[in-house]
Specification:
- The strands form two sheets. A seven-stranded mixed beta sheet has the order 4-3-2-5-6-9-7, with helices on both faces. A two-stranded antiparallel sheet has the order 1-8.
- It is built from twelve helices and nine strands.
- With 289 residues, it is α/β, with parallel strands linked by helices.
- Helices cover 40% and strands 18% of the residues.
- The chain has two domains: 202 residues, Vaccinia Virus protein VP39 (Rossmann fold, 3-Layer(aba) Sandwich), CATH 3.40.50; 70 residues, rRNA adenine dimethylase, C-terminal domain (Helicase, Ruva Protein, domain 3), CATH 1.10.8.
Amino acid sequence: MADLGIPANTIAVLQKYDFNFQKKFGQNFLIDTRVLEHIIEESHVTKDDCVLEIGPGIGTMTQYLAESAGMVVAVEIDKNLIPILEDTLSEYNNVKIINGDILKTDVRAICDEYNGGRPIKVVANLPYYITTPIIMGLFESKVPLDSITIMVQKEVAERMECGPGTKDYGALSLAVQFYARPEIVANVPPNCFLPRPGVGSAVIRLDRFSEPPVRVDDEKLMFNMIRAAFNQRRKTLANGLGNSGIQGITRELVQKVLEEMGLNPLLRGEAMDLETWAEFTNKVIVKLA
C-alpha cells in the first residue's frame, strides 16, 4: 500500500475517490512523513498497545500506527471517508474502522472489546474546533487511558502546558494538569497539511496520572469556581466568584478563605496553581458545611 504521508499519494487517493474536504469536520490531512514518524515515536506505541485514533481521515497516520501497535481502532465521523479507509487500510488485519462521532462513542466499550478493559493510548490529528470537548470528554468519563498524543492548534497546546502568571494560563491548563502531565513534543507548520490550515499546530502528549496530583473534596465545585474565575479574569477572585451564581459562594467567604490561607484577599484566580486551587476548594467546602 502506498505511503499516504507522501503528498503525491494523498492527492492520488483524493482524486481517485473525487473527495471534497468538509469544512464542518475540520479536515486537514498530514502530508509529512517526518512529522508522522515523530508522532508515532513520541506516543510510545508498541505492539502491546491498543490505540484509539480519532479522525483518521484517509488513513495516513493509521498506516503508521498499524505498523507499530497491536490494535488500532479508528473512529471517523465522515461517512464519505469510510470506503476510502477500507481501501487504504485493506492490507492491515489489526485495524477496526468505526463510522461515528467520538463525542457520542462509548470509548469504554472499545477498551473492553479490543483491549480487555486495559488502558488504551489515544493518538490523533484532532479537528481544532472540538479539541477541548474531546480531550475533557476522555478525561472526565474516566475511561482507562494511558496517554493522549494529539495534533492541536499551537496556542491550545501552549494553554494546556503553561502555568500561573502567563497570558495563556486558564481553565483548560488547570483541567488538563489535574488529569495528566502535558508536554509539547513538536511544532508543526501549516505546509505539513493538505489543505493548509490558517494557524500553526503542535503535537502534545498528555500522560495520564494514575491519581490526581492534588486532593480535592469536590472536583466539580473546584472546576466550577475555576471556570467562573477565568470567565472574569480581570476581576479579583472574591469579586469574580462573588457574582458567579455558585450557591453559597460570596465575596466575603472568598476573602475570608484567602486570608486564612495567608493570601492577598485581592488575589486573582490566574495567580493560583492547581495545588492552591485544591486547598482553596477544600477550605470553602468546610465553610459551606
